[in-house]
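Model: You mentioned two targets. I'll fold them one after the other.
Researcher: Yes, keep them separate.
Model: Target one:
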Amino acid sequence: MVDPAKQQLMGLRIVEATYQPLEKTIRTVGRIDYDERKLKQIQTKIEGWIERLYVDFTGTFVKRGGPLFSIYSPELVSAQEEYLLALQAKTRIGSSPFERVAASGRSLLEAARRRLLLWDITPEQIAELERSGTPTKTLTLISPIDGFVIEKMALEGMRVDPSMVLYKIADLSTVWVYTDIYEYELPLVKVGQEAMVRLSYYPGRTFRGRVIYLYPYLDSKTRTAKVRLELPNPSASQLKPGMFADVELKVALGKRLAVPHEAILDSGTRQIVFVESGEGRFEPKEVTLGLRVDDRHEILAGLKPGTRVVASANFFLDSESKLRESMGAMAGMAGMERMRMDKMQGMEGMGGRQ
């Protein structure tokens, strides 16, 4: 039993278990990387020799449709000649009174055109071939996207074939951020969830992204799972692959029954709070805990809303112990004082009898 005077002396604080809006913040570190969906490899579909490079160093920004290199290929020249012959044949037999003959001419021309398109010759280049009537010696390959050249293997004069990668181009309008989440946090993370990303390179600035994928396996050593975020890259070169970032994921948990974390005494096997039972009495009560959010802990079972508990269980035990020691010491001193007074009175009595 702890009467109000002792409670005040101990600095004891009582709080109620209440439903509170809880928001869990997961903090971790991430690494910026390329958006794999926006990476392009440049290869030829024909054998030949590179005659000229238009993009001759790594890091160059290229526009979609911009020239990368020109290639000479005997196969390409032959395919253009076949197309021109098919075009001439269609012109000659296109007006034939025999439909089967005219259809054959159209079919031959279409097959020759498809062959050129499959070799990445553009419709504009085919139209120019029809206009000029002369095969071009070289084919100019163009960039399929806006982006930065992140790898360049092409060299002037190099012999190339379809198996060779000549350029790698990355569109950096969006980037990915890879981060690791502990397994006990995984139930809180969902695809589509907003994430806030901060970089030391841009102090005071926050970039907003979203979770786009949760990897289906754990690292057995760190007990973490990889999470992938997508992040818009405003200037396409501001966020660079390889940068490290601080990542925050905020999880709204709704209203849940909670008490201060310090109100819980963890014995290792049980979690206990001290419940006010009236007239200065406090009883230990076992509880079942849920999530801890900052300085609060969710209560799954053991308490009802409005139950009054000691705000700091450890402080309560320490203060009560110290108070008992103090009261015991004071009682001991008082006893010694009484013994001294009794002794003095006894000596005075002996003197009077003499």
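Model: Target two:
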Amino acid sequence: MMLPKFLLLLALLCGTAAWADEMANPIHAQLVPKRYTTLSAEIAGRLERLTVQEGARFKEGQTLASIDCALQRSLIDEARATLSAAEKTRSVQKRLVQLNSGGVLEAEVAAAEAEKARAKLNSSQIVVSKCTLLAPFSGRVVEQKVREHQYVQAGQALLDILDDSALEVEFILPSQALAVLRVGEQFQVNVGETGKHYLARIVRIGAKVDSVSHTIKVVGELHNPSLELIAGMSGLVTLVPPKSDHAIKTVEP
């Protein structure tokens, strides 16, 4: 019974030693934004205006683009007129019923027509609201995919944007690191573009080990990120496995 336990312990020690040798080498990492997305047109039409260009900053709720919606706005006017007429008809039919001069069925039909007209107005207003593209968060424009006055289709990509207020550090570790890796552990990353070290901590560990490479993705968060850092920069992270506990030691690359 003692032999299997000894072999298991020996295997674990060998695995940790192999991981320690691999961790002695710097680990490549990349800075990525917490939030980034591609904004697309929700309706087809001529791109009337783009208010931002590549690299520009914007605020949450700011108008980034607008599509020519003259036709859709005219449909709102038509829907309002139809609703006004339907409301008057309903009012007349209701009064006739009160005076015993009209049928209940006619009054109910008039009421239904009024509700139908109101729904049509609401629908037209929703369509027009999609003519303006608003920023879902504050950030910067990564790429402008279209030009003003260009005709765009519904679903066509217009802008790539990101939130650079908080950057994360992504890197890949051997799956053996899961034995000692802990969320909250601090480390330093040496960013190549600036030549400086920055303090960070592990905030997430991947949910799945890659079955081919036997690696796991690790995500760290920078403490008080400097304004000189931008998404896409890369650097080196060096982690040293523990000797007697389960804490990751930090060393500079």
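Researcher: Noted. Anything on target two?
Model: Residues 47 and 150 are 5 Å apart (CA to CA).
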